[in-house]
Amino acid sequence: MAAAALCWALRAARQVLPLSCPRQVRSYHVDWRMLRDVKRRKMAYEYADERLRINAIRKNSILPKELQEVADKEIAALPRDSCPVRIRNRCVLTSRPRGVKRRWRLSRIVFRHFADHAQMSGVQRAMW
Amino acid sequence: TSSVLSKDKDKSAASKDSTPEGAAKRQEDGAETAKQQLLDIIGNMKVEVSYRKKLQQLKASENKKQAVNKLEGPDSESSMRQGITENTQRDKPLNPELVKAASAVASSLPRNKKQTESELLAQLRRHEETTDEQKKGRTINIRNVISEMTVKRQSPAQWGARISSRISLQLDEDGQRIRPERSSTQSMDSRWYFCGFSFFVYRSLKVGKRLNIFTKASTEPEHALKTVSSPTIWDLEFAKEVAAVTAQPPRNGFEEMIQWTKEGILWEFPIDNEVGMEDDAEFHEHIFLEKHLEGFPKEGPIRHFMELVICGLSKNPYLSVKQKVEHIEWFQKYFEEKKELLQEI
Fold it and tell me: Where is the composition biased (Polar residues) (chain B) (predicted)?
């Protein structure tokens, strides 16, 4: 169940810090595209369970096909922003959609900038 | 632990010499006059005898511990042991029952019986001494106080060097490196302050026997206050105000990190992966989920499907039991809504 694995990852990523602490709240988004991406992520988180379950009914060889067709229609009826496919891993600082390294969530240009100023822990210029 | 090891080595040599002496001494102390106590104290001021006594005490305490550990099975000996602990606080001279008990204990041990018996009796007598002293109020045992202190004699040149080194260390803490020339001029003035302290060797605070000079402050009134009133909202607010007023800005990076950890911004190290996750459920609640399948028909494709779902859930370590139950209930609701559809098929 690959979809299940994705959803587990979504849940695990949301592990909250101990309850007493205030979550980090971002009040500045570089541009509107970044804001829309943030909205899509929130929606995908809300509808993740339902989508997983409906997809489990759809991608099935046991249940009757009529049930599966109904499930198809249901999932199509969900809001468009709730699907995780629409999420784009943008750079966190510049909102660049391309050239983003997943581990640091930064675009290549910002990454280079910080690494050269020795502000990235454990990152060194390669030389061999 | 190194001191214990060294004492272990010395035990075999010194124990046999010391125990007959110790036994003889203790039998004399049965009368317990003040004069004899003083004589004992003076006699024990010497380093050798006190060391032997420590060995003796250690060995006796170890034997007692061994005796206690080995005799936990049989009931008669445990009752005798209880008899020992009770009787030590009653009679001044040793009870014949105690003596019998000690001999029985010694006979049961595999080691040298007479030795262990004499040591046990010595230990008992010592317990009695201490209880008597505490009853009378004379809790200060001078031997303990003085045995820990050793008199060191140094030449005044060495004094000066030591003091100057101390001062230079103290001055270095402020961040300024002061040359030894300047420190020597200052040391002349403060040498007189340090003279008095050179007699006692500075050791760590928690080494050595307890002197019983200070009595513990009684904790009863604190308990009484706590039980009377549970903290009201006003108390909490007041406490918060006080904390906010007295909170100093962090002086260094460590205090900043401490503050962050308290607020929750920084995780606690070593990282506990299960912070916030309180899964009190046992493993069988995660794995055996068939009891939740009661709402479904027992045969047919739906049952087959749900059994697969349950199989997948039982292998899932990331969801809590509640989430798994919700999962199954969602399916139940869904299939109930689609019942008409299903019956057409």
Answer: 76-87
Of A18, A53, A60, the CB nearest to B275: A18
Alpha-carbon gap: A23 to the closest alpha carbon of chain B (Å): 8
The parent domain of residue B122 ranges over 96-144
Domain count, chain B: 2
- B residues 249-308 closer than 8 Å to A (CB): 263-265, 267, 275-277, 301-302, 304-305, 308
SS3 string, chain B, reads: CHHHHHHHHHHHHHHHHHHHHHHHHHHHCCCCCHHHHHHHHHHCCCHHHHHHHHHHHHHHHHHHHHHHHHCCCCHHHHHHHHHHHHHCCCCCCCCHHHHHHHHHHHHHCCCCHHHHHHHHHHHHHHHHHHHHHHHHCCCCCHHHHHHHCCECCCCHHHHHHHHHHHHHHHHHHCCCCCCHHHHHHHHHHHHHHHHHHHHECCCCCCCCCCCCCCCCCCCHHHHHHHHHCCCCHHHHHHHHHHHHHHCCCCCCHHHHHHHHHHHCCCCCCCCCCCCCCCCCCCHHHHHCCHHHHHHCCCCCHHHHHHHHHHHHHHCCCCCCHHHHHHHHHHHHHHHHHCHHHHHHC
> What is the predicted ipTM?
0.78
Among B80, B111, B144, the domain boundary falls at B144
User: Is B304 a domain residue?
Assistant: yes
- Chain B contact for A14 (CB, 8 A cutoff): no
Architecture per CATH, domain A30-88, reads as Orthogonal Bundle (1.10)
Name the segment(s) of chain A with CATH classification 1.10.287.1480. Answer: 30-88
Q: What is the pLDDT of residues B238-274, one digit of tens each?
A: 999 999 999 889 999 999 999 999 888 888 888 888 7
